[in-house]
Structure formats: C-alpha cells, structure tokens
Amino acid sequence: MVAARLAVAPSSPTKRLRACMPPSAASSTLRLSTSASQKPATTTTAMMAAVPASSAVPPSVVPDVVRSDLRHAAEALSWQELHGANHWQGLLQPLHPLLRAEVVRYGELVEACYRAFDLDPSSKRYLNCKHGKKQILQAVGMADSGYVVTKYIYAAPDVPALPFGVCRPCSKSRWIGYVAVASESVAGRRRTTDILVSFRGTVTWSEWLANFMSALAPARFDPADPRPDVRVESGFLSLYTSDNDTGKFTTGSCRNQLLSEISRLIVEHKDEDVSITLAGHSMGSSLALLLGYDLAELGMNQGVPITVFSFGGPRVGNQEFKNRCGELGIRVLRVANLNDPVTKMPGVVFNERAARVLDGRFEMPWSKACYAHVGVEVALNFFKTGDLACLHDLRAYIDQLLKCPDQDVATDSTVRRVRDRVASMFESWRLQMAVIRTGELLRALGI
Fold first, then answer.
1. Within a domain: 5
2. Radius of gyration (Cα) for the chain, nearest Å?
C-alpha cells in the first residue's frame, strides 16, 4: 500500500476547484485511447466495458460480437464482486475491464459535483449547486446514468475565525454532494436498489482549514459503545458532524442529513435488495469513509453491503479505525496516483509503517497517534512535468483509468520505485510536517 497525503492550499479556493474540474462541459465525453501493445480482443472489450451509460456512443454502433463478449463477462462477474464481496481478489492486477468501468462510472458521478458547483460570486447560488435535484445529472451530461437524485447535502466545519474576515464568506454551510438512487438496470443489477452518496473535494477556505486540523479525535458515533481508541482526523470529523444554521439551504449537520435520508431510503426500498455506495474525491473521499463507518457502527449495514470508492483520498483515521472498519465489513477501494501528495497525508511521518516494527509484530507506544490507510488500493502512476495540479485532478484520474494499459497499474516494484522518487521530491515538505506531527504526538502522549 502506498503512503498517504495532505493537500497544500493554493492561493484561492477558486483556483483549487478549477484544478479538480474539467476545462469545460465538453470534457464530459469520455476519451478512450489504447496501446498498440495490447491484444485487439482485450482492448476492444476493455474499451467498451469502460464506457458508462453517459457515453455519447449509441448502442446501435456497438458490434454484436462486442455486446456478446461483455454479456458473457458480466455473467461471469457479479456486481457484488465488483463492489468488493471478495475484496476484489484477482481483479486488480491486471485491472479487470468491468471493474475499471465500474470505478470510472463512480468517478464520473463524483465529477458531477464539480461540474454543477457554482463559482460565480454574483450568483445567488454562489458556492452551491447550480441546478435543481431533477436537472443536475442531465445538466452535467449524465442523464442516462440510471440514478435519480433525492437529496442535496450541505456541510461546514467548525473552524476558528481568522483575522480580517478571511473565512467569513465561506463559513456558512455549502453544498458538498448529493444522495441518489439507481434504477434496477444499472450495472446489471436486478431487483436491487443502489443508494449512492457522492461528495466533492475541498473548495472553501473553511474546508481548507479543516484539512489542516490533523490532530486525531475520537469519533464516538455509537453512543452505546463510543470506542475512544478509534480516532479520526479532527477536521474531517468537524465537517461531518458540525451543525451550522447560517446557510441558505442548511438542514442540520452533514451527518444528520445523511443518516436521515439513507434511513428513509432503506425503509422505502425494504422489499428490495439494497446496497449503499459511497464515492468521493480528495476531502470528499474522507467524508465517504466516515459515513460508511458511521452507518456500519450504528448497525445500518445489516444485510446492506457498504462500498466506498475513494479517488485521491487522504488518510482518515488511526490503526484502530482501520481495524474497526475491517471488523464491520466496510469495503473500500482506494484509487491513488503514486505521485499525488494528497494521498500521502496526513501522517506523512507517523503512519501505519511507523506504528509497528519487525514486520508488524510489535506495536510502538505512539501507534494510537499514527494514521493508517483503509481498504484495497488501485495504484495509478501518472505525472506531467509543469502541471502539478494534474497529479490530484479527478479528471486526470478518470482519463488515466480509461486509457492506461494494464502495465500502468502499478506493481509492487513500481510502487517502491515511485515512492523513492516522491520521497525525494517532498523531502523539505516532509521535514516541516514531521515537526507538526511530533507536536501532535507529544499532545497525544500528554507531554
């Protein structure tokens, strides 16, 4: 598993969002490219499997032989396997074309959050969604996704005020994602309802401040069993749990909004097989994982599988949090660019490798203050000289998944080689973060 990350804030939240967004709505058409070294049959199948329902390619142009190949592949691989019923064993190296298509599909549904976000300061919906629930997916070119949006989600972290009113325009609750329900025909599902929650990444200044609140805090989601040793990043926890009634569309904390809506949908579809899929990019992937843990800790995953698709996500909690997620059966597929510094934070120094010694047989005294990644990793490897923003860009992630041949999905040797290169690139940065994390460790130990 590759180490994790923290983002460095740019000069403005607007510039940061543009780094995560496609250059225009026209980029919503998926770009497919292949390698000459691939076998023709494999390439054709992988390309067609990677085209989600939102693609501009009409069904009439798909050759019958390709339809037949995909149909047989779908019959051999159930959606439960695609969503981690077997922890994606045998599907990652090489990346199975149907799994690749599924990951791309959820990446597009997360990217819809960026496309629909209003960045016009003169707009009455500034820093909120530009479209109503019934129009959003159609407006971003995903009318055929098979999902119907049922609720918008708003959130704001509880962060300290900065001088000169720096965070004042962004302190209100802002639109951070949506809840949607899939039709039965999506991804080969039959008599199954998929409840999707999609989260965007960091945009506002208050959200950037929350990203840097890297001290670990107990989650305490289950009142009957608070589990104080299970700790998560305090900034992400604040964004998830803080109440803020100052926003125009605010209806309580992000947590209360989500638990209420998901509970309602589970009851509404109680006569069907229900699955819950949580997807997010960057900070949004942290919220997706917190929500998955929350639902499972409250027992809402009884007979309802919970799967998290994380794109460019940072670490969220400590080793106890990781262990507890495993005990609760939360399935996490983490897509990470080996060159993306955000996936290395928080915990650039005090992480899962620093928590144990001698091949993990002995736990160090500071292990409870160390961060750990959760889930199974799909390691991508892309880097563009002169364009560091692309390292964390969600569109770049999706395009790489679509166009990269199997050998571009990193092997263990690739991981080690790129890890060494990234370590040298960020050596000075790592030293600065070491000082910060040392201070956090001393606080955690009560020194």
1. no
2. 21
| Cβ(171)–Cβ(208) below 8 Å | no
What range does the domain containing 350 cover?
Answer: 13-444
392 is catalytic: yes
Q: Among residues 206, 282, 285, 310, which one is catalytic?
A: 282
Q: Is 87 a catalytic residue?
A: no
The residues that bridge with 372 in the sheet, in sequence order, are 317
Residue 7 placed within a domain: no
Q: Which of 69, 158, 340, 399 is catalytic?
A: 340
Residue 435: inside a domain: yes
pLDDT tens for each residue of 359-392: 455 555 455 678 999 999 999 998 876 777 889 9
Domain with residue 330: its CATH number is 3.40.50.1820
For helices 254-268 and 283-297, the axis angle rounded to 10 degrees is 60
Determine, yes or no, domain membership for 2: no
pLDDT at 53: 37
Residue 384, pLDDT score:
77
What pTM was estimated for this model as a whole? Answer: 0.74
Write the Ramachandran bin of 271: left for phi over 0, alpha for psi from -120 to 50, otherwise beta.
Answer: alpha
Q: Total domain count for the chain? A: 1
* Catalytic annotation present for 340: yes
From the candidates 54, 392, 393, 399, give the one annotated as an active-site residue: 392
* Other residues' Cβ atoms within 10 Å of the Cβ of residue 286: 28
